[in-house]
Write a structure and sequence with these properties.
Oligomer: single chain
Number of helices: 15
Helix content: over 70%
Shape: globular
Structural class: mainly alpha
Number of strands: 0
Length: 345
Amino acid sequence: MNTAWQKFKDNVPLRRVVVFLLIVACLYEMRAMMNTILLTFIFTYVIVHLIRLVQRYIPKMPTGIIVVVTYLIILALLYFVITVYLPMLVVQISKMVKSVMVFYESDESLRLMSYVTRYISKSELIEQAKHAMTFAFHTATNIGTLTIATFMSLILSFFYTIELKKMREFSSLFVKSGYLKWLFEDICYFGKKFTNTFGVVLEAQFLIAICNTALTMIGLAIMRMPQIVALGLMVFILSLVPVAGVIISLIPLSIVGYSVGGIRYVIYIFIMIMIIHAVEAYVLNPKFMASKTELPIFYTFLVLLVAEHFWGSWGLIVGVPIFTFFLDVLGIKPTKKSKKKAVLK
């Protein structure tokens, strides 16, 4: 028995597979808390990187001061969002909904719907409408849950980062433990892999989403589109979905554009989205994800479909980073050398 146990501990690949399956099983059992877990990781990751950035330029700046100032700024921004931005957003969304309703009541919309119904049965349209209403209902009911999860994640990330040095020292004691030292070593191994892949890819996608939103809002401002703030928020959220997000945003933007300026504005928006998509594909992705695994578009869409099926809306945001983490763990990662060989061939 002892010999078999010792062989298991010495067999590192088998041991890590078992530990990985245990982690997956634990996360599955804690799936009800997944919003809090993911948001806590994201907030903590961002704050820790902010601490390192500040201390790179001001080495003697205490960690506690950086964390307290950062969270005071976050609280001030939350107050601004709730008291100023949220009422303005509600007004703009209501105007956007009214403009969409005007479009649906117009003669052009009736002709378009009659054209569509030639190829799509009414039962299919009713079924899709039911799905849309169900999705809207679930989204509305989940807002309260997501809000609580966000505040809990902020509190947890605050206590983690305010005692960052103490947390690291205490966590290192697990790796130095006796009987289960191998278990905590493997958990630490997967934790580092997860941070180095999931965190960095998610950070890169966040920066890409900011750039996409800024470019889109500039284009909408040039076109003098209404409700730019509401449309910008929608584009930012959709841009967190890799590759597909920019394309998905074309649909609501086209509807609003048609209600404002007719088919001419739809063409303008289509050209603008294609330009922004090209900038994302050929400029932003190589810039922010140069050191990461670059997935082909087919794999990206496949991962998004599977992740959305299992994890819902969260899957669209974290699906690609998690898949990149799996590739890193399995050692599937194209190198620059292999790429050069492929070019030479």
